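Input record (one chain):
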Amino acid sequence: MDAPTRTAPHRPSPPTVRLDTARTQHAAAEPAHHTTAHDHHHGTADEDPHTRARTHLGRLWGVPATHTHLTTGADDTFDTLVRDTPLTPRDRIWTTPHESVARLHTLHTLRDRTRCRLEVVPLRPDGDLDLDWMRHHLDDDVALVSVTHLSPACGTVNPVTAIGRLLAPHRARYALDASHSAGLLPLDAAATGCHLLTADAFRFLNGPPDTGIAYTHPHPGAPAGSTPPPAPHPAAVTALADTLTHHTPAATHPHTDHLPRLRAALARTPGITLLPTGTRQAGILAFRHDHLDAGTLRHALARRAVLLSKTVAHEHPLHPASRTGAPALHASLHPATTAHDIDRLAHTLTEVLHAHTHPTPHPRTPPTAPALPTPRTTPARPATPTPAPVRTLPTPRTTAPARSTPATRSTPALRSVPAPAAALPALPALPAFPAFPAFPGSAGSAGPGTRTAPSLAAVPALATPTTQATPTATTAPTASGGHRPRTPPPAARRTRTAGRRGHLTLHRADHDTTPHPPPGGQR
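The corresponding structure, as predicted from the sequence alone:
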């Protein structure tokens, strides 16, 4: 019987903490509350989705529903309703450091077309807009003012109502961007006195992707006969109507603000630096780490199911936080964010920073030696005897006889010959050689014609049994007193016995042509 298999207990993964609502588009996460015929406050189910959505949008901003619009996004609506504004070169446009790059692109296009001036309202040292500067420089030349309600760079809430009251006596057209405040902060568009209000519905309103909302108020500075903003897909309109039906009551009532709890948790984390904000902040907090870049920190948190977004300098090029150029992390709080989510972020952030500061060394496995191949068994072969080395005698070199100078007599060179098979017997002592009689007429004789016999010293030495002398060229005296070379006789070789005188055996070469005197002094 097989033993039961034990499996590890399943541990459910922790729920995902979403703190990136202000930067990304998400589908509707919460089910829409469909209305019924008895709910007269929210409309009926048979009502047109477009009409129902505009009705809830009018209640959300406190404006007439007939002046609201459903669009594909805030940036597209702003570009459509502003780019054709009639301006002159003497007119001025005001914007703020919180402006997004998409709206700045529209304002730059309008400036290049009309040759007007584009001015940026400065910030005070505390991070708020300088209303005194606006009051001092405001006149009838200011034709368009673009302000962001909630700054997406660091969460600063601008005094949009005070700005509306400041602009009310003048001809300036007031455009307000509520892309990051719609659904997060209550907003009364009529109280602000704005003439154009745009927002994205896919952020804090939790609407479908690529949907936006807008409000327009008649203004003499608006372009006449402008193109209406682009409308979303009919299916997106239906989903947006359901979303506004659900979020309208929650957005109009204040909710628990967990931003102070988040700020305190980040301030306690070592190495975290918060980006400067104004005196009022809501929903968004940006921070950096002193040594760890934003991308690495964001990915490490995402692997632990905590989602943040990253902000870069080109998204808000006029904001002071973008001057360093370093990206920052961006935490945004949804109305459904709880205190547990904040504590989870603080705990996970501490773990990530500790893991990067004190990395755990991985155990190193010692390298395994590769298996040696099994040697193949082969039959033994008989040993082959190694032949003895053959000694090769050097070939004797034949050298030409050296020429001697008249004053030098060369020494005969010896040539090695093979030894005989048996050693020759020792020769007996030589007796005194008898003197030859003098020939008449020879030199040194008593009379003319006598010749003296050569002495024993003049006889050539006998060759030894092992070595035979090779005479070299010699010189002979000439009649003029010089010397001429004489060809040396060839080496003597053993010949037959010429004759025996007593016990001495004389040998001579067959080719010896030197005349010898016959006995008795006769030739």
